[in-house]
Write a structure and sequence with these properties.
By secondary structure, this protein is mainly α. It contains 19 helices and 2 strands. It has a two-stranded parallel sheet.
């Protein structure tokens, strides 16, 4: 293989496998920062060595083994200046010997698939602050940038970075174990894990920034983690979340044109929707609803899946049962009264009762949330929804002002192109 081909292969491996490799290295090395540094050194070594020595038949174990030895070398160098590092070096060397035996026995590669789930539960340990659990997992397990996580939380990158640093320090100081908790400990840890998986999916379904609307590797990873979690703990909300992700993912092929332009739900070619994913999602939803009927209550993911199922089973936007969607949002707002949920409910009301009613509800949400945590003032979709209501009402000047606000707030290129086209149409 040429140097350029090997570079492309290494880039592809990094995109597809760096998350799993990092999770395994954290298990082997016991330190987030050391594992991340060692992983990057291993990928750099691959770029340097593989053009001469050839690509290993199984690159992932090679990268893990190389990273592990890089970490040991790093700690040996530090031990020359700090005697307290000697114990760490001995621990890593012992772990290295054990891991090498596991690799020879063929079990290292098998454990890779479980390491990210173990790491998620470690990051979601109850001793960590709730917001830190999600931020740390998104950064370390799923490789999202601080800016992407901040966008998902409607907060600043600096605030997120501080949360991550504090969470890492607490894991290190309290020696939080790297393991999936025992069954009796799962309930108190499950909510944060579900939130992590859902936010990963959301970033893949609607990327915060960049040239693509979707990031299939993230939605695929979230669905994979959802399946793993359902096998481990088939609780109603776990089933509901997997249903929701499958129903949302079923529309991915129809959400952009062949040239990458954004296509709204009302204009999507529903023949492109993935019917297998819809069928599986609806079957899982029925299972989650059956669980919920026994307890006479439904969780937020199950309700969102029910909303997605109404969309998935409708032949068109006009044939969609908007009354049912609004009723489901009414239930969702009662248990999860977040600004984004209230905004989505307002948009559904507009589809049921007309744009004037929708605009009144959007304005009420914006006013109610002003200055509070989760403020929608810097959320571009709030201004985009408001602009659409003005456009449908023929209030062109106000529509233009709201589209301009939305355009200034989004960093996703297809979204920017869509908003720019809307502005052009209003001239």
């Amino acid at each position: 293989m040429s140097t350029e081909q090997i570079r492309e292969l290494v880039d592809s491996l990094y995109r597809a496998d760096s998350g799993r490799i990092l999770a395994t290295l954290i298990r082997l090395l016991g330190d987030f920062d050391l594992a991340e540094e060692a992983m990057h050194e291993a990928f750099a070594a691959a770029l340097s060595l593989w053009p001469r020595s050839g690509v290993p038949s199984n690159p992932r174990p090679w990268l893990i083994s190389t990273a592990r030895f890089k970490a040991i070398d790093t700690q040996r160098r530090r031990a020359r200046f700090d005697a307290s590092q000697d114990e760490i070096v001995r621990y890593l060397e012992a772990q290295s010997s054990s891991a090498e035996r596991s690799n020879q026995e063929g079990s290292l590669d098998d454990s890779l698939e479980d390491d990210r789930l173990r790491l998620i539960f470690t990051c979601c340990h109850p001793s960590l602050a709730s917001e830190a659990r999600v931020a740390l997992t998104l950064r370390e397990v799923c490789g999202l940038t601080t800016e992407e996580i901040a966008k998902a939380f409607l907060t600043t990158p600096r605030t997120l970075a501080q949360r991550i640093v504090r969470a890492k320090a607490k894991i290190r100081e309290e020696r939080i174990p790297y393991e999936v908790p025992a069954p009796q400990e799962l309930p108190e840890r499950l909510g944060a894990v579900l939130q992590v998986i859902y936010l990963v999916f959301n970033e893949g379904y609607s990327a915060a920034a960049g040239a693509e609307v979707t990031r299939a590797e993230l939605t695929g990873e979230a669905i994979r983690l959802g399946r793993l979690l359902m096998e481990l703990q088939p609780e109603p909300e776990v089933v509901g979340l997997l249903s929701l992700m499958l129903l949302q993912e079923s529309r991915r092929a129809a959400r952009t044109s062949p040239t990458g332009e954004l296509i709204l739900l009302e204009n999507q070619n529903r023949a492109l929707w993935n019917r297998e994913q819809i069928a599986e999602g609806v079957a899982l939803l029925e299972k989650a609803l059956k669980y919920g009927q026994k307890s006479r209550r439904f969780g937020s993911y199950t309700l969102q899946a029910a909303i997605a199922a109404v969309h998935a089973e409708a032949e068109s936007v006009a044939a969609t049962d908007w009354r049912q969607i609004v009723a489901l949002y009414d239930q969702l707002v009662r248990i999860q009264p977040s600004p984004v949920v209230q905004l989505n409910r307002a948009v559904a009301i507009a589809m049921r009762d007309g744009p004037e009613a929708g605009l009144a509800h959007i304005d009420a949400v914006l006013e109610h949330c002003s200055g509070k945590q989760g403020d929608l003032a810097n959320y571009y979709l709030a201004h985009s929804a408001r602009a659409d209501m003005y456009r449908r009402l023929g209030r062109t000047a106000e529509a233009r002002a709201s589209y301009e606000k939305a355009l200034a707030l989004t960093q996703q290129e297809p979204e920017r192109q869509f908003l720019a086209r809307r502005l052009e149409e209003l001239k």
